[in-house]
Write a structure and sequence with these properties.
alpha/beta; binds beta-D-galactopyranose; 2 domains; 13 strands; 442 residues; five-stranded mixed sheet; D-Maltodextrin-Binding Protein, domain 2; 11% strand; globular; disordered N terminus
């Protein structure tokens, strides 16, 4: 009984801290939160072993849209084919799903596996010894010989051991276009963001919403990064996000990017705030809107709607230089005192990198496989574009959350979101606030 009360108490604390950690006093709470993690962790392996029965595995993820569900079902089917039982815990919104995973670990009831992004989102969990090393299977199967691009090894390897399994590459660098809407509006399809802004008024006059957006900080931040990187180029973005180079930030180009970003606002409908990304994609699929700036997980939505790439819709990588952003997903496996669970976790990690599973999953997901020896003959024209680019090292663009902590990226996104939603928030005020984040050490 006592253990139960203690665990309930921990659960309450962790929910409170997670909320504070994400909204107020990030740095201080982050430190306190990690102390909490290490203090209470010995209590937290009581009922997790229930998941260890006959390859029973609970997986937490945030893939709830049509395309995402089609994709995760490929993992579930492969797991069931191996005789496993897949317990699917789908949670809307990446931040919510990741927060639930952390709370479940603290609260003594960790899932078997959980989704994170190719990012620094799970580094704290590694540093506090919360995740199962996958080195046993990684070494046995030679992951270092086939994982591509090599940057993905960096993401998952800590002190020479694998602590996550990369499952795909998703690039945010796309404009998703409804061909018929552009035809009806009588305007050419854009190659750059600026091309789009030039024709958006005619699209509006023709009675269509020019730009579909989900007004959530991560989507607003994604759109900002596509505007910035397609205008300034990856080398400049690396100076900002990797090097925190204030001189580069203040060289006068960022003000222009912020102004371009604000200009897009004129072409986004009033219903944007809070809209889910896939509801914005549906506006383009159904011809209500002309375009969406979104990652290539949008391709999965066009696919489930039976739309054909380059026929019903087009996929344009904006900007003169074409980049493939190294976004995407990994799965981590919270440590468990039950040795049976570890066995299950290593088997699942191996399943997720299997070439056949990779082909089935990525074709449904709209993402690129994490290895080159995968049958991609079913890939449509948009996916083929990504496959070609990913094999050009200079076209691979690492992103903000690849170099920076979740605290940094959410502080940055909060400013971008406020800048988009508040017309009184000036470019110069936004520049000052963004510089403060850049130099914050978050
Ligand atoms: C991203 C994730 C993608 C995609 C998207 C929208 O973070 O990498 O797989 O599903 O969220 O949910």
């Amino acid at each position: 009984m006592l253990v139960l009360q203690v665990k309930r108490f921990i659960d309450l604390i962790s929910k409170t801290f997670y909320l504070i950690l994400n909204f107020k006093g990030r740095k201080i709470m982050k430190k306190f939160f990690s102390i909490l993690l290490t203090l209470f962790i010995p209590l937290s392996f009581t009922n997790a072993s229930k998941a260890g029965g006959h390859m029973e595995a609970e997986v937490i993820h945030w893939w709830v849209s049509g395309g995402e569900q089609a994709a995760i079902s490929k993992f579930a089917e492969a797991w069931q084919d191996m005789g496993g039982t897949w317990i699917d815990t789908a949670i809307t919104g990446g931040e919510n799903a990741r927060g639930t995973t952390v709370n479940r670990i603290i609260g003594g009831n960790p899932p078997t596996a959980a989704q994170f992004n190719i990012s620094k989102q799970f580094v704290d969990l590694v540093e506090q010894g919360q995740l199962q090393s996958l080195e046993e299977v990684a070494s046995a199967e030679g992951w270092r010989d086939f994982i591509y691009p090599p940057e993905l090894i960096e993401t998952c390897e800590f002190e020479g051991e694998f602590y996550c399994v990369p499952v795909n590459i998703h690039s945010a660098q796309w404009m998703w276009i409804n061909n018929e809407v552009f035809e009806k509006a009588g305007v050419p399809k854009p190659n750059t963001i600026q091309d789009f802004i030039a024709v958006a008024p005619q699209i509006q006059d023709a009675g269509f919403i020019p730009l579909a957006l989900g007004g959530q900080p991560w989507q607003e931040g994604l759109m900002f990064d596509v505007v910035a990187s397609s205008t300034l180029g990856f080398p400049h973005m690396a100076k900002l996000y990797r090097d925190k180079d204030v001189e580069a930030f203040r060289d006068g180009k960022m003000e222009m990017v912020l102004q371009t970003y604000r200009d897009l606002n004129k072409f986004i409908d009033e219903g944007a705030p809070g809209r889910l990304w896939n509801d914005a994609t549906a506006m383009v699929v159904e011809g209500k809107a002309a375009m969406q700036i979104m990652g290539d997980w949008a391709r999965g939505e066009f696919a489930v709607a039976g739309k054909e790439a380059k026929v019903d819709y087009d996929c344009v990588i904006p900007g003169k230089e074409k980049y493939v952003a190294l976004g995407g997903d990994v799965f981590v496996f919270p440590k468990n005192s039950d040795p049976k669970v570890k066995e299950i976790q290593l088997k699942m990690a191996s399943m997720m990198v299997n070439p056949t599973v990779q082909a089935n999953f990525n074709n449904a997901k709209g993402s690129l496989p994490m290895r080159l020896d995968v049958d991609t003959s079913a890939a449509d024209a948009c996916m083929q574009m990504g496959l070609e680019l990913i094999q050009q090292p200079s076209a691979i663009m690492r992103e903000n959350d690849d170099w920076n902590s979740p605290a940094f990226t959410s502080a940055w996104e909060d400013i971008i979101s406020e800048f988009r939603n508040d017309p009184n928030y000036s470019v110069s005020a936004a520049m000052d606030d963004l510089e403060a984040v850049l130099t914050s050490g978050l």
